[in-house]
Structure formats: structure tokens, C-alpha cells
Specification:
Elements: E1 2-5, H1 12-21, E2 26-31, E3 36-37, H2 43-46, E4 54-56, E5 62-63, H3 66-76, H4 89-114, H5 120-141, H6 154-163, H7 177-187, H8 190-207
Parallel strand pairs: 1-2
Antiparallel strand pairs: 1-4, 2-3, 4-5
The structure holds glutathione.
């Protein structure tokens, strides 16, 4: 399996998941602006949408959306407990969380704030969505440290990856103490720290 990731993008969630599960995944870095891989391949020839994450399976199948990539990786190692079994109601809670994260948090808030092409009205719309969306995350967490059940799942990997972006779009996470402590707690997980360490190193290599 080959995982295509861009340093500190949402694909970090898949990178974390691969390490949490101890899967033998080949990591390939992508420059999503140039649409090239670190080893010089045309990324659009691999993933025509041009975005990450992409997971190329050994049979050639390409998965290119966070919910499918994360669930596939989790299902490769069920005993790691990164996604509950199919049929368990908790599985549908994980899917519910992944969809909320992908649409309300990732696209409605962060993607609009990051986009250079987004007109001011769109940025204002995204900024107005921060408070209710982050409040909803706090409600989802309740008094727990995980989005679903009592253990770290792929939904947490996705949220942790996105909370890293807050300082870059002017979101003061300190306004949500629960999210601040949640983020800090999970950044200390060895698999999370390892994936972030590698992606930060790749980012520094690029900037040099
Ligand atoms: N539909 C995809 C979108 C993933 C996405 O937005 N990836 C961003 C990084 S966080 C990306 O690769 N952007 C570069 C581009 O779209 O050219 C998903 O929800 O998983």
C-alpha cells in the first residue's frame, strides 16, 4: 500500500492511522501545488483529483477521500481498535463523526479560510461558522477524551490533524478549553508525534 500525503495536510490523519495500526504503508510526499510526488511523478496521473490523502492499494485500487482511506486502514488491523466492527452502532458513530469533520469542520470552516481564491464574503461565512462548529465538537466530546466511545479512533486522528491548523487561520483554540486539552492529550500519543515529526521534517526540507 502507498499513502500519498502532503506535510501537515488532512492526510496526516491517515499517516497517524497507519502508525497507530502498525501497518506497512509506504509514505510518499506530494506537492499539491505542483501536483508532483517527491520522487518526481505526476500526481494527477496517480490521483486525478490532485488532492491528498490518496491510498493506492496493492491491486491498483485508489481511495482518495478521508472517510474511505481512514476506514480502509483501520479495517486492515481491526485489533488496533481504530474503528469499531461493522454492525456495531459505534461504527456508525465513527462515520457520523467523519462526515461531520469532513463537511462542517474541514470544508465549511478550514478550507474556506485557507483558500486564497475565496472572496471576503466566503471568509466571513466560514469565520461565522467557527463558534457553532467548535461548540458542536465540544458537545460531541462531552466529558470524554475521544469523539466516539472510550478509545482513540480514526475520527480523533482526523480532528487532531485539523486542530493543528488553528493558529494558521487565526482560530484561538484557547476559547475552547476542552478542545485545547483534547488536542494536547492526543499530540502526546507516540504514533501522532512520530507522524507529525516526519511531516514537519519534510516541510522544513522543502522550505530550506
Ligand atoms: N474531498 C477530499 C478533500 C481532501 C482535501 O481537501 N485535501 C487537501 C489537503 S487538506 C488538498 O490536498 N488540497 C490540495 C488541492 O485540492 O489541490 C476529502 O474530503 O478527503
Amino acid at each position: 500500500m502507498e499513502l500519498f500525503t502532503s506535510p501537515m495536510a488532512c492526510s496526516l490523519a491517515a499517516h497517524i492511522t497507519a502508525y497507530e495500526a502498525g501497518l506497512p504503508v509506504h509514505i510518499t510526499y506530494v506537492d499539491t501545488r505542483a501536483k508532483t510526488t517527491k520522487d518526481g511523478r505526476d500526481y494527477r496521473a496517480i490521483a486525478p483529483n490532485g488532492y491528498v490523502p490518496a491510498l493506492k492499494l496493492d491491486d491498483g485500487t485508489l481511495l482518495n477521500e478521508n472517510p474511505s482511506v481512514l476506514q480502509y486502514l483501520a479495517d486492515c488491523k481491526p485489533e488496533a481498535g481504530l474503528a469499531p466492527a461493522w454492525g456495531d452502532v459505534r461504527r456508525y458513530e465513527v462515520i457520523d463523526a467523519l462526515n461531520f469533520l469532513g463537511t462542517e469542520v474541514h470544508k465549511k470552516v478550514f478550507s474556506n479560510l485557507f483558500s486564497a481564491a475565496m472572496p471576503q464574503e466566503g471568509k466571513d461565512f466560514a469565520r461565522a461558522a467557527i463558534q457553532p462548529t467548535f461548540d458542536a465538537l465540544v458537545r460531541r466530546l462531552g466529558d470524554r477524551d475521544h469523539l466516539v466511545g472510550d478509545r482513540f479512533t480514526i475520527a480523533d486522528a482526523y480532528l487532531v490533524a485539523m486542530l493543528n491548523w488553528c493558529p494558521f487561520v487565526g482560530i484561538d483554540l484557547a476559547k475552547w478549553p476542552k478542545l485545547t486539552s483534547y488536542h494536547k492529550l492526543h499530540l502526546a500519543r507516540p504514533a501522532v508525534a512520530k507522524a507529525i515529526g516526519e511531516e514537519m521534517a519534510e516541510r522544513a526540507r522543502r522550505a530550506a
